TrEMBL record:
Superkingdom in the source lineage: Bacteria
Source organism of the structure: Streptomyces echinatus
PANTHER family referenced in this protein's UniProt entry, alphabetically: NADPH-DEPENDENT 1-ACYLDIHYDROXYACETONE PHOSPHATE REDUCTASE (PTHR44169)
InterPro entries from the UniProt entry: NAD(P)-bd_dom_sf, SDR_fam
Pfam family, one: adh_short
Protein's name according to its UniProt entry: NAD(P)-dependent dehydrogenase (Short-subunit alcohol dehydrogenase family)
Family: Belongs to the short-chain dehydrogenases/reductases (SDR) family.
């Protein structure tokens, strides 16, 4: 898929990764960029077409699909992290995170799939995480939702192949955004992440591992759970000590 002259819709485009995606799409020649947010008045990027959107609200998702029938590239970026554990944390918080990070993305795909088919197939980018593959105390609800979103992405890729829609999963460690502000470690710049993802779309890639952290984590998946957890403990300790 060629980013130049595409019509893109980006969720969570008012800040962080979403804003970077919208900006780089404009800079790379997209014909139109729909920048969506729950509070559309917070979108401050010139040149975009702003739409209100709450991906956890099916009515809002449906309205966005009606308002943007010309989309050829859907960037599912919006997400939340509640810092909730699975056993002792609020089950409502776990459900809220799952409704946003997995079902919200799936709702967007279901609503926009017909438009993508009608516009030549197009592409979908699902922004996931290296935490699709590992958890940790205080972030296990997030791990659950990203693992579920990874499985969902793999499933819809197979279902949408027949209509010619590329589905690209993008994994990263930490990006330099508000969500990762408390981590004093090296982080990928949002614009670099957006470029890596868009390069992957143009190359027809099903998966983009955007940084060394995500590449390292995925390389450990063949290990046993005990070996994997020990390797992750060492890697996290080294990361924090750097």
């Amino acid at each position: 898929m060629d980013i130049n002259n595409s019509v893109a819709l980006v969720t969570g485009a008012n800040r962080g990764l979403g804003r970077a995606f919208a900006q780089r799409l404009l800079e790379r020649g997209a014909h139109k960029v729909y920048a969506t947010a729950r509070r559309p008045e917070t979108v401050d990027l010139p040149g975009v077409e702003v739409l209100p959107l709450d991906i956890a609200d099916p009515t809002s998702v449906r309205a966005a699909a009606v308002a943007a029938p010309d989309v050829s590239l859907l960037v599912n970026n919006a997400g939340i992290s509640t810092g909730t554990d699975l056993v002792t944390g609020s089950l409502d918080a776990v459900r809220h995170e799952l409704e946003t990070n997995m079902f919200g993305h799936l709702s967007m795909i279901r609503e926009f799939a017909p438009a993508l088919a009608g516009n030549g197939g197009g592409a979908i980018v699902n922004v996931l995480s290296a935490m699709s593959w590992f958890g940790g105390k205080g972030a296990n609800a997030y791990h659950l939702t990203k693992a579920a979103a990874w499985a969902m992405t793999n499933g819809v890729r197979l279902e949408l192949a027949e209509q010619g829609t590329l589905v690209t999963a993008v994994h990263l460690g930490l990006a330099d955004t508000d969500m990762a502000a408390g981590w004093p470690v090296d982080k990928i710049a949002p614009s670099d992440l957006a470029d890596a993802a868009l390069d992957g779309v143009e190359a027809g890639s099903a998966e983009v591992l955007a940084d060394q952290w995500s590449r390292d984590v995925k390389s450990r998946l063949p290990l046993t759970p005990e070996e994997f957890n020990a390797a992750m403990d060492r890697a996290l300790a080294a990361l924090m000590a750097a």
